Amino acid sequence: METKTWTTCPFCGVGCGIVVHTRDGRIAWVDDDPANLSSRGMLCVKGRFGTTFVQHPDRLTTPLIRRGGEFVPATWDEALDLIAERLPAFRGRFGSFASAKATNEDAFVQQKFVRLIMGTNNIDHCTRLCHSPSVEAMLDQLGSGATSNSYSDYEEASCLVLVGCDPGSNHPVIASRMRKAVDEFGTRLVVVNPKRIDMAERADIFLQPLPGTDVALFNGMARAILDEGLEDRAFIAGRTEGFEAWRAAVLERTVEEYAAVCGVGAAELREAARLYAAPPPRRGLPPGERPGSCLAWGMGITQHAHGTDNARALINLALLTGQLGRPGCGISPLRGQNNVQGCGDAGCIPDSLPGYQPYAGDVAAIFEEAWGAGIPREPGIKATDMVERIAAGDIRAMYIVGENPLLSEPNLAHAEALFRQLDFLVVQDLFLHETAQLADVVLPACSFAEKDGTFTNSERRVQRVRPAIPPVGASRPDWAIIADLARRMAPGAGIDPRQFAYGSAAEVFAEMARLTPQLRGISYERLDREGGIQWPCPNPDHPGTRFLYADRFPRGLGKFVPVRQAEPAAELPDSAYPLVLNTGRVLYHWHGGTITRRVQALVEQMPEVPVAIHPDDAAKLGIDEGVEVVVRSRRGRLTGKAVITDAVREGSVFVPFVKLQGSAANFLTNNAYDEPSRIPEYKVCAVRVEKKRPRPVGAIGAPPTASRGR
Amino acid sequence: MRVDGQEVEPAGTILDAVLALGISLPHLCKDDNLPAIGACRTCLVEADGRVVAACHTPAAGVEEVLTASERAVRLRRAVLRLTARMHGPRPDVEGGPRSAELWAAYGEHGLEQPAYPRRARDTFDTSSPFFHFDEQACILCGRCVAACQGLQHIGAIGIAGTGTHARVTPGAGVAFAASICTACGSCVAACPTHALRPAPSSRDGVRFERATEG
Fold this sequence. Notes:
The structure holds two protein chains of two kinds.
Chain A: E1 2-8, E2 17-23, E3 26-32, H1 45-49, E4 64-67, E5 70-73, H2 76-86, E6 94-97, H3 104-117, E7 123-124, H4 132-141, H5 151-156, E8 159-163, H6 167-170, H7 172-185, E9 188-192, E10 205-207, H8 214-227, H9 233-239, E11 240-241, H10 243-250, H11 255-262, H12 266-277, E12 293-297, H13 299-302, H14 307-321, E13 330-333, H15 340-345, H16 361-371, H17 383-388, E14 397-401, H18 405-408, H19 412-419, E15 424-429, E16 441-444, E17 453-456, E18 461-465, H20 478-493, H21 505-515, H22 524-530, E19 533-534, E20 558-559, E21 579-584, H23 600-605, E22 610-613, H24 615-621, E23 628-632, E24 637-644, E25 652-656, E26 670-673, E27 680-681, E28 685-691
Parallel strand pairs in A: 6-7, 6-14, 8-9, 8-12, 9-10, 11-20, 12-13, 14-15, 15-16, 21-25, 22-24
Antiparallel strand pairs in A: 1-2, 2-3, 4-5, 4-16, 17-18, 18-19, 21-28, 22-25, 23-24, 23-28, 26-27
Helix pairs in contact in A: 2-20, 3-20, 3-21, 4-14, 8-11, 8-12, 8-14
Chain B: E1 2-3, E2 6-7, H1 14-20, E3 44-47, E4 50-53, E5 64-66, H2 70-84, H3 101-108, E6 124-125, E7 131-134, H4 143-151, E8 158-160, E9 167-169, H5 186-190, E10 196-198
Parallel strand pairs in B: 1-5
Antiparallel strand pairs in B: 1-2, 3-4, 3-5, 6-7, 7-10, 8-9
């Protein structure tokens, strides 16, 4: 039998529409969906060819309970009863990670379980490791932590500024839409990245700053805009506050001084500033409309010990130039995972309730009335701190859904030592990954292809996920597992078990929409009829919102916040570790690779960790293209394959954080944190690189496989 | 406007109107996803007495369209015979979802599946783990090139050469794996024959060794 299911891609945050074709219950082909408003018929290699992981033989098919050091298959009743019996003892010392790969419904039920049954706000997810500084800065300065524009604005902008992101690798369909703007409409392109990414080929200005000097770079652009009088004075006067104090801080240095700190040319810095503030109109811009600029950024901004300062400096630029609240402009923190927007929207963050609503006052009371019990009103512990505070005994038990912190945390040897100290660990996932191997109970969850739900993409569009194949083994949807557990624990916690008596994902969504003003107008019925809808959507007649901040910011006025360049990084190169390690991602793998390592074609395409190194550094170290190299930091080592390229700056190496053949960049990275957001500094640490010593005679290596290392 | 006697709103192209009525008409070089190319001529119809390619003729102003007139069918059959001269026998493998369009068109026009000898253009590029390019099955409709450039704005493939030397290629002497192709697969989705098709390793059901952690 053959079926076709219209659903949403499970990889990056672009949220492309896919049509899953099955034959005899197995996925046979993944087609694009021209009607999807976010992807318009485009897909990338992972969406098209990368979903076969869902039926990989490694899938967990039954609950597992650790007995005497070994995992033993168990029934759902045995596993859930055991968890229900053990967890109550850890109230007050419990934390939970939600999954940005799971659905909004999964996330909503999980945060409700953690808040209501476990009585804590210690719930967080991988946004802590990617865009928490962006969210922190945007909430403070604007009052909302989401991308302000839509993808269609990239095609209507007159200038695109891409900072610290590589959409060609990580958001390929956004990259296609940006290339379309440049190729067809003559949109100007500014790329800022220490690595020369593919999009730089089309750039009018490409700036390659020294690692960790972003604040100086954006302050330099601001200074150039002020020097030339290109600021939007009406916007500053009418829509912002704090301008004078911020201006004074920016004027402390000249454009030339800022440029020197970053290692870029002052003339290029000025030109980039001009293009952003006042780009020439693109072809086809309606007469009389002001040419807009979109500002998009990624982990290159956030994953620094001063990540929040970097994000603030960018938001200051948007406020200075008034490039917000119109078509063809806006600010976009590009989201890495399919539902990282939705997981935060659903309340899986320690400092607010669903919809980013505060714990204080009437809001918490609304939740307490709906849920029939009190909820904790103190902010919880952030993800990275939950791990660090295992050592102090503040966290003794954890419930981890769809995350593999033992690949995604910095300084993995340190993280593993901490996880081993936990008294009780539950992991709910598709595969028995590194973290799951340390668990006391492992629960098999359904993949995206086996359940109903919704994902919310980078442009705030809520889209349906629909089952294409039957659940693999005894796996169940995440929300159903947690609701089942919650019903078992509810009586002991003084909660009415009917609070978790959901009959379907649609019922979960309906409750979430009722309690979350920005989603109130969205229902499954509307999504099935109209396709994806962009929040805010306050009522059933509302069409959804293409761009935010047209008339006001959620906090009222936009706030300028003075920021000054700090030390570039917590750990800088020295004689023992003379190179700077920059981590990121590649097109052919996804994050740590727990999923993409189980897609044969992707592994064939890129079987080993590529270590990109500048030709001059390679020559000094005697390293040839394609040889095995060892990269060491003070915390660990990895083996990878040398890719010699002048795309990286001299003195820098780039290694994606996917784990291949036992090597992962996060064994090297530094567990230094940005203070407000507690994001780790993945982007800068000091390393040394050397050629791997020859293997013993007789050993035969794997044949070299084409790897384009992009 | 009337198509084969049925009233229809003359919006878009004649092909849009034909397909909206559920009438079957080959359109081998026109993808739902992409603007018309007008290369394959397999969508010829009679419009107010003129023979036109339905895919890129606006419906506005046309009063009477005949898809099944003796003349239209005869011409389409001739075009399909010429198309059949361009490719080799039907490969004994599965293609993408639209790859049966060619064979369906033959069937609807009462043509036997052609079994011509192998022709000179017979590159078989298996360098990508995601898809293969079997040039023998290519009819040079250009849908793949339009998908690569017009949809994805990558421009990894083009048609090189003219006349009988024309061929789809990611660059002279370059295999897909060594080109700027990002393996998005839009060309594979667009291909109306089996020429561009998913590689066996990208298909489900092919078991491979268990991935180990660590």
